[in-house]
């Protein structure tokens, strides 16, 4: 399997309320989104909200394994977005959360099985690590991906999102 | 107040011409606020679920130790 970088976007000064990849080429097998992000949430940690195909239905399900630095949690959830752990603006200065989000068989006409591996970078006890198995109940091929902060309102400058296809 | 923007990367275009920085419309800003409210509800549900599980685990350990198990045995049973 070969990884091909499709595009990287870097948020400029002033931040961005959302990042959207559109017209995703349909010649790959899997999609891998690599994120290095920080939001303006005035607290430790934030989540990135991910949607595909602008689908705002309650189609995003996950089961998660999560470490907080002082405990471990499991959980499951179904909602209108897929969540990915990220950095808020009270985490260690100038650090960015990092995450991989893998969408398998993204051109198929079946629901999409996904996984994510994310780290909230914070030089303190509270620092989340998060593994999730996701189901996105959308049978359309994935042609667009939308990303937005959960609690924050903007991704901060120098946040990046890179989209790879695996084929 | 600065109008929030979105970064749209149109992958049908050639490299170097793909990225657009577009101010959000009033409708998009309203939708964003609605989404934020929904996200807050969902976040509260997730946190409540985590807390309920932690409470249930603590309660189970207390009850098991009351039945005579050591704390180590109770922890092993509840997977803590």
Describe it.
- By secondary structure, chain A is mostly beta strands.
- Chain A has no helices and 12 strands.
- Chain A has strands at 3-10, 18-22, 30-37, 46-52, 60-67, 72-79, 82-86, 97-103, 112-119, 129-136, 145-149, 160-166.
- An 8-stranded antiparallel sheet of chain A has the order 1-12-3-8-9-10-5-6, with no helix packed on it. A 4-stranded antiparallel sheet of chain A has the order 2-11-4-7, with no helix packed on it.
- In chain A, a hairpin with an 8-residue loop joins strand 8 (97-103) and strand 9 (112-119).
- The radius of gyration of chain A is 15 Å and the shape is globular.
- Chain B has 80 residues and is an alpha+beta fold.
- Chain B is 61% helix and 14% strand.
- A two-stranded antiparallel sheet of chain B has the order 1-2.
- In chain B, strand 1 and strand 2 form a beta hairpin.
- In chain B, helix 1 packs across helix 2 (71-78).
- The A-B interface holds A 6-7, 9, 11-12, 14-25, 47, 49, 56, 71, 73-75, 77, 79-81, 148, 150-151, 153-154, 163 and B 2, 4-13, 15, 18-19, 21, 24, 32, 35-36, 38-40, 42-43, 45-46, 49-50, 53-54.
Topology:
The complex is a heterodimer of chains A (167) and B (80).
Chain A: E1 3-10, E2 18-22, E3 30-37, E4 46-52, E5 60-67, E6 72-79, E7 82-86, E8 97-103, E9 112-119, E10 129-136, E11 145-149, E12 160-166
Antiparallel strand pairs in A: 1-12, 2-11, 3-8, 3-12, 4-7, 4-11, 5-6, 5-10, 8-9, 9-10
Chain B: E1 5-10, E2 19-23, H1 26-66, H2 71-78
Antiparallel strand pairs in B: 1-2
Helix pairs in contact in B: 1-2
